[in-house]
Amino acid sequence: MDSPPENAGKGLKPTISVYTEYLSNRISSYFPAASYSNFLSRISNFYRGSSGTSKRRRRNTSLPLPFPSSAESSTAVCEASRTVGVLEDIMECIFLNMHYIQKNLEYWQSKAQGSNAKRAYFMICERGPYAFFNGTAQLLSDCVGEGSGMQHTYCLASSYISERINFLSSLRYHLATFLAQIYMKVDKVGEELVKDPEKSLSSLLVDMNDLFLKLEASIGHFHAVRQQSSSVDESYSFPLIFERLPEVNQEGSQWTDCETRDAINLIYQNVDRLNTYLAAIVTIHRKPRRATRYWIPYTCGIVGISICSLWLLRHSSLVGSSDIDNWIREAKESTVSFWNDHVEQPLISIRDDLFYTFRKRQKGAMEPEEVQLTADSLHRMLQAFTEQTKGEKAPPNATDQEMLEIVMMRYEKELMHPIQNLFSGELSRALLIQVQKLKLDIEEAMLELDQILRANEINFAILAALPAFFLSLIVIMLVRAWFKQDKKAEGRGRVARIQRRLLIVEVERKIMQLESCKEQGQEKDAQCMLGLALYYLDRLYCAVEGHARATGEWIILRQDIIDLAKPDLQTAHKLRITSRMERVYDCLLPLPKTQ
């Protein structure tokens, strides 16, 4: 946006330009200025939710008009539906434009709070290729000529940013004042409009027309001052001129249906003109587009992609190389192998273990029957040795351990004369009994190990599937983060709750500033503070509705927000309401730190 339309024919366009400014400049060179400006304003209005006179699409939620709550659904409101629609469209127009201005104002304020180095970097590197080359050339020229190039860049950046802050702040001031005047007028005549719409409709339309003319005078004067001295290269192609009601209509006490319809259409024309005008002047002072701010990384990315494309082209079949085909085949084989080893086979193993393992086991390395045979054989050997050694029959309740002690005692005696007893004694028999005991111990150990392995088959299968599980978990988290992008104050996370609580803080600040302006007799500033409070209340209203409906708090919370918007409500009562909102309602409470 920093490259003015005049640059389209000066030969200063960058050779590689894929940015919106370049396309905008190219298109503007083929269309007349008026029609092109109208075209851009229509696109901007569509993007920001506004449409033409004949077909308007409102937001799903917005701060309600201050009509009496007891008569919101009465037939009188239905009779005045045309006027209510006009007022809602005016309020929506102001809310949307103020939000658009506020976003750009917050961006420039954040830039103003940065250091001189960051502001200079913005001036040179974040305003597009044309500003980069022009700013670099100017910096080098100043450094060579005067030796104070950086200081001049710092001053230029401060002036550039402060000018946009002042412009957007002043524009927000006038729109907030206009919003407060409309809201106070509706609050004043709301009850009369509900009770007798035919009588109060004409006076309300006349008052709306007068407020539009006051806004025209305010912004027109501001526009004239801006034209005298400005660092903005682009200029406004048209002034803001609203349609006026005929003097005959303003003097009449009772209007016909045709006159009322013409007056409503005139108000709609003024709303469209305001939208078009604001779209044009705010676009000139808006923050640079994302493609403009990050054109250097994007350019590096394009260059990197181009180099990678050339490298791939050298290894592709287009130049007779089979490298890419081989890589694709290897990647396919690796993927299939990974799927089989870490997904399919582990899942099949888990399924088999869950449904078949405990009912149908395959033969293991050692079965309990074999171990029992070895144990029975050892028992008989011990029993025969004991009976032969003692010369009497062994007790029927004698354990293997007791009989093994007799064998070991005999074994120790036999070892006193090993060679003699090896051939004529019981030494060899005692050795064979010990070998049988060792065999039994080994078989029992193998049986326990086999039981452990069988019991952990499911664990081993799960361990084999862990890589695929973690990979799937990462993919799911990325997809979830992609679909659940940051929704600012409308979201459900900690950041969204902080944003909603900050909106309450802004409402409290504006209420206190409103009271201060009233005490000092600054009526205009008080209207501005009321308009800003209404803007933040509208944002809070839209942000909390879905959450409050889910928790059943919406009816009471909605009434609290409407009470905060009442111009005549005492400041102390409003502050008590904001304090209660921060403490009571679930959608406005901070999340615990443990979550």
TrEMBL record:
Membrane association type: Multi-pass membrane protein
InterPro entries: NCA2-like
A single Gene Ontology CC term: mitochondrial membrane
Pfam families: NCA2
Record keywords, A-Z: Coiled coil, Membrane, Mitochondrion, Transmembrane, Transmembrane helix
TM spans (from-to): 460-483
Stretch list, region Disordered: 49-71
Signal sequence residues: none
Subcellular location: Mitochondrion membrane
Keyword Mitochondrion attributed: yes
Protein name from the UniProt record: Protein DGS1, mitochondrial
